[in-house]
What we know:
Layout (H helix, E strand, L loop, with lengths): L1 H8 L5 E5 L5 E6 L3 E6 L4 E7 L27 E2 L23 E8 L5 E7 L3 H6 L4 E9 L3 E9 L5 E3 L1 E3 L2 E3 L6 E4 L5 E4 L5 E4 L4 E2 L4 E6 L5 E5 L4 E8 L3 E6 L1 H8 L11 E8 L5 E3 L4 E12 L1
Antiparallel strand pairs: 1-2, 2-3, 3-4, 5-11, 6-7, 7-8, 8-9, 9-23, 10-22, 11-21, 12-21, 13-16, 13-18, 14-15, 14-17, 17-20, 18-19, 19-23, 20-21
Amino acid sequence: MAETLNTQFGIKGQLVFNADASGLIVAEIDNVLGSASLCLQGAHLMTWQPKSQAVPVVWLSRDTKPAVGKSIRGGAPVCWPWFGAHATESAFPGHGFARTVPWRVIESGTEPDGATRLTLRLVASDKTRIQWSHECNVDLTVIVGETLRMEMTTENTGSTDFVIGEALHTYFQIGDIGQVRVTGLDGCEYWDKVGGSNLRRQEGGISFSGETDRVYINTGATCVIHDDELNRRIHISKSGSLSTVVWTPWVEKANKMGDMGQPEGWREMVCVESVNAIENVVKVAAGTTHTLIVEYRAESV
């Protein structure tokens, strides 16, 4: 399969497809601006590092073990067509099925500035149709360069409307969770998922001293991760998304998860996710499309 993909979509000196130890196919991108890796299962971007940065911007757990049908810890998981638990079916997987099923490559190319573009489409199957019977196409385009741009488009090809929840659940590499803060959400309301689901209002920036799991609603704001240890800022700009999730598991939950990079890999990551959830789920009318776009940029300070 990798050989066929390289013939059809490989780009000399930029994009090559390889099979990893588990048999999953991974797209490896390395151009003059940046590098990245993306697993075709789940259209899961695993790593990204612009050439201007000495440390990766997207975090991947050193303890994750990619396997067929299993989610990967870190990177930018695709949550679709629901976010969190399914509304009525407890047996359905949390955050939807998109992150653990095959996607196929439909296009690749080079941008005018030298960035590499790759587009994948979710592959529907009898198993996915049990969980989601609506007719649609779901495409993810990733543009890897000095910035990272991700565009997820849901096209309703059927004759009835449907509603989706979704997220690009991105993990960011940081120096230490105790020395970062996230700005851009001052004054926003959020559902606090730690210790009960309560609606609160953010005051100032977000700093971390324990488990944090917040769904900020009705906001399309750009967020910035200020990292004092790595002396950089990570900018997260988005459109087509009105929720933002900020998450760190902290020590107790991380230890229970078992794949966060022991003993304290969790201290080196924070999630700032571009989402449509709760009040902000999206109705996609028959014959229309919805696109969630996010762009990441890192700068040294």
